[in-house]
Amino acid sequence: MILSDDLICEGYTIEPVGEGDSDQYMKIRKDFLKPFVDQYYGGWVEEIQMIIANDLFHRTRKDASFLKILKSGETIGFLAYKEQPDQITDISVIMSESGQEIELLGEFLHFITRLSDRTKKPVLLTVYQSAPFADLYLEHGFTIYGTSRTHYLMSYNIEDTSGMGDYKNRIYAAGIGKDS
């Protein structure tokens, strides 16, 4: 991913995430997600969320493209995506309040949709329904193909999403939960 000249001139850079970024990831993740966890899941339980965040940090470093956003050398956010043989998934954006969240997210979504167009791979992601930037995904060509209690289930570059909103059918179609 390459930032626009305007963002670069403002001091923004993007670098791969390293092992030493774990503490900053945990802090920014908490600041970003706590309002959603409080709203939808009854409150942030620090011990549980730290276990989830630690596991997610290490899995994402191992299995996905994981980038940190810096402004004037200070980490202000993280971006991740996983390009699989048949799709692009595990899209994640967490940012501290920098005043540029929408512009940065817009550039990331532009990058992801261009990657999808170039590779002909669909993009699947989830967005909290109450996220103030949920409309930005729609502006970049994503469509809502289903909802959960908490999230919009969104896709890009998929012509037929019928049946995709029914996660139970997808789980059972994959053989999970079936008797062998």
TrEMBL record:
Q: Which InterPro entries does this entry report, sorted A to Z?
A: Acyl_CoA_acyltransferase, GNAT_dom
Q: Which GO terms describe its molecular function?
A: acyltransferase activity, transferring groups other than amino-acyl groups
Q: Which residues form the N-acetyltransferase domain?
A: 12-159
What is the organism of origin for this protein? Answer: Lacrimispora amygdalina
Q: What is this protein called?
A: N-acetyltransferase domain-containing protein
Domain of life the protein comes from: Bacteria
Entries under SUPFAM superfamilies matching the protein = Acyl-CoA N-acyltransferases (Nat)
